[in-house]
Amino acid sequence: MKTEAYEKVRTARSNSRPTSIDYIHHIFDVFFEMHGDRKFADDGAVVGGIALLNDLPVTVISIEKGRSVKERMARSFGAPQPEGYRKALRLMKQAEKFGRPVICLIDTSGAYCGIGAEERGQGQAIADNLMEMMTLKTPVISVFVGEGGSGGALALAVADRVWMLENAVYSVISPEGCASILWKDSSRASEAAEVLKLTAEDSYENGFIEKVISEGDIGEDSFYERLKWELIWEMNALRDKPLEELLEERYQKFRKVGAQETD
Amino acid sequence: MAFFNFRLQPKNELEKGGRTSAPVQSDESEPEKKCPNCHKDIPISELAGNLNVCSCGYHFRLNSRQRIGMITDKGSFKELFTEVDYSDPIDFPGYQDKIDSAKNLSKEKEGVVCGTAKIGGEDCCIFAMEPYFMMGSMGTAVGEKVTSLFEYATEHRMSVVGFTVSGGARMQEGLFSLLQMAKTSGAVKRHNDAGLFYLTVLTDPTTGGVTASFAMEGDIILAEPSATVGFAGARVIEQTTKKALPKGFQTSEFLLKHGFVDAIVSRQRQKTLIRHLLKIHDRREGV
Description:
With 263 residues, chain A is of the alpha/beta class.
């Protein structure tokens, strides 16, 4: 059974799709990449640095899957290690210090799954980002450009604005993982994708994201130009907000998910 | 007492919801439990007298009420947010049945119990996750209750003591579940920024989205001996990496060695230690 949701999963994962670095090169005028978490290593799956958005200095943090086989290996196919999340947090704290807004580009099947990642506290690294992003004293916009796999994606998505490309997906678990738990059959991933409500449209309808970016002209100059101006306008609007209001709205945006009346 | 009817079962059996009623003791002799560690049969009354810890040191799993009963002063626990119920926000197939069997098995409404209590005379907010309710997985109700507890604690300037046991985010509520990680972390952060104390005790098992949120956000993180604590599942890691896992991988002892917990504390020592730590961190005005 082929479902529309699973078609989007396949599109989001497609090799021919632009990766985060393409966005960085097309949208920003200057980009200076910074490496390392200052604790253990430099994770190739997370690419971050300072950039100019038009003439506004911003910090850009992205999860990069890579293109060639060699590059994909070096970037762990876009699955960040704990040091990737710690590098991201280092750059966010630096952005806060210098009053730079933050733009995150997300494309990951999930946080890296491995012995070393557990030894170095994958869960702790993600938890730290969730806490710190909630109160980061500068505007943050996160854009899902491809896959948004679970906690590994959320660790860069506690933002004032969360946008998704039309064919990006955002899910608590991969459709394959869901199918194998639910029906003991990972080949029913297509049905699972439908059930999980993982499309950009679903996320928009459920109020998790503020914007769906159409991608009819994806990869063309017009596409990047459009996204660039969306970012400029929105960032200017966020920068105009008093900090206290910005942070309260950020908190409430997540606070309201699944909220119930309590006494 | 009702909880004696529970026998240690593999996690998967519970998660499948295959068993909907507690096993009935058939013979007249005193009920016993087999220790999975030393394989001895231990009379249940003896276990109960020893906080459900075998003489070999093996810590049997506790449900949330046992946990709260064990750690808080008698009669001091006042439950909060009892009205919060499960929801099925994405209309997930078969979810209602799973909830029904989880309610049946655990006799709880959801995967966490929250409230206020005294521990050795020290006031605090407390939560204990419920292993027999879909293995303490975090859906919107669990996220809502934990978040509300931190907000309550911030408002009343109270410390929070949390016992975690969880299979992670609850798949059946889709992104609604995942975003509870951000929601709970936000509430923990506000509590933290108010200068208030949060202590977590990681118990077997604490994994996935709970490890990657409020379980790892304590000012002090304790763990019970030999508890499984990790982010990704061990079997998944083994299958993905095709490497043999190191001995003791993702146990409390492994986390201690790698610097992610402050101390491993046996159940017998927990109450005294937690009381001392609460006293040291008392931040209410006028105290």
